[in-house]
Amino acid sequence: MHVFVDESGDLGFTTSSSKFFIVAYLECDPPHKLQIEMKRVLKHLHQKNEYSLSRNELKFSRMDRLCRRYVLKKLADFDVNLGVIVLDKSMVNSNLRKEQVALYSWCVVHNIMASLLPYLTMNKKLTMVFDRSLPAWRIGEFNSYLENKASYLLSKKGTKLSSDCISSLHIVSELEPCLQAVDAVAGAYFQKFERKNDEYARMIENKVSSFKYLWRK
Fold first, then answer.
1. Domains contained in the chain, number
2. Domain housing 30
3. pTM of the predicted protein model
4. 1-22, pLDDT tens digit by residue?
């Protein structure tokens, strides 16, 4: 099982920070068909002069409405499984606001793994792929958290699966089309919650099998 993860918004708590932090994940197995499709999407948009030739990857934040809809339409027609986690930052307590690394790890790792682990079976491995945006030392710290979280959740559920069945990769998004695809998912839901524009999220909502709002009163 391959799961690609990206986020939109930030975890700052200043007046200029976003109000929401969105984490999206995309499951497809095997991923090569989606990788090919996303490369075709980029090539098509380049050929139609609808997306700058200087941009070698699809970035939702850099697209106009036409490009965004084209990418999301392709995702809606593809065999993928999506998950979305929405953090309402106004509901984060003051102590946690000072621990942004812990907050990030919890939002990204705990909630995704809690949703996916019940579907893991013997002889099946989970590979989580992240955009390589963290420094090397932070990646090591993040991976350790992931391994510890996997062990905890697996033991809590009483499963016999080993935490070795879960691995993580950190790849530059320009080199991984599936990360570009999930970037569009995160961007669509950021538009819905931060901008009050649900046009894009509506296009893919039937693909979302897991949705969490943190923390709804």
1. 1
2. 2-214
3. 0.92
4. 899 999 999 999 999 999 999 9
